[in-house]
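For practice. Supply one:
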Amino acid sequence: MAKTLEYYDIVEYPVITEKAVDLISTQNKLTFIVNKKSNKAEIKAAVEKLYKVKVKTINTLVDRKSRKKAFVTLSKEFNAQDVANKLGIL
């Protein structure tokens, strides 16, 4: 029997790099390190539930350090800078 992940288990922490901060202001995208076993649908549900936003798209990749990184594009009604301020990124 497979154990389902909770929302706070899926989204581990936000990425705070120069590129990630640039994506927030230019493309309305937030970047998170997520659980390697989670899929795009689970990531979308977790971000929407935890941060009370509507997600447009999700792109994922596994970086050199073997972490799964999710680029979350928010829909136009929501501002990524507002969410970043609440998280303490900006």
